[in-house]
Amino acid sequence: MKKKRVIILLLVIISLFSFARSDVFFSASSDVYTRYIFRGVSPAGNQPALSINFSAFFESVNLNLSQWYVNSLSDITAYHELGTMLSYYHYFNNRLIASGGMTMYLFPNLPDSPLAGVEMSLTLADMEFVIPYFIETYFDFVLKSWYAKFSAGYTFDLFLPINLSASCGVNLLAYDRFGMSIPAGFSDAGIHISSYMTLKRWQISPKLSLWFTHNAIYSKPMLQASVNLSYSF
Length: 233
Known about the structure:
By secondary structure, this protein is mainly β. The protein has one domain (23-232): Porin, CATH 2.40.160.40. It contains 1 helix and 15 strands; from the N terminus they run αβββββββββββββββ. It has one helix spanning 2-19; strands at 24-33, 49-58, 63-72, 80-91, 96-106, 116-126, 133-140, 145-157, 161-171, 175-177, 180-182, 185-195, 197-199, 202-213, 222-232. β7 and β8 form a beta hairpin. The chain starts with a helix and ends with a strand.
């Protein structure tokens, strides 16, 4: 079964490369987190985590293929996550952008959770509103989870570009994940400050977030610091 999935994924990638008629834009990046937080839940607890990401954007067809891997660091057996996402972008104009995608998650060796999740997503972004905002929704066919999120942020220049943003997510359905029962209703809210520095094709982006969640396990706000290092080619 695993071999068949790998072959299908390779065929999809080859088809996309052959179909694209103009430039394909690639990026590779890595994130280091003080703790990994996913929709109000910290599956590996209060320990650092590392993610590795790769994406390819096919300009002629507005398709983006992303692959990522997340692993806890203090105890490398505590949490693993592997994800593959294919997204299509539609540009109504320079201001409004919509996207739809399918994501497959794999959670190897994670107790009390299914091995895989298959998720459909829809996003609408208004990039030229007074404060640019995003509306996102995600439905997982395996977990029967339905998550929606609203986020907005504004960037201004000091000695470096500074982005201030806020986000709020809700669970439209109750479901089980990471061995936890996730109730319907409020999921998480976050306040974020970030910046970036660019040198040719390299970019480094530090970020600091304060998260508020529904879960009694995290009754106090969770502070998360992260650094992203990316290379575009």
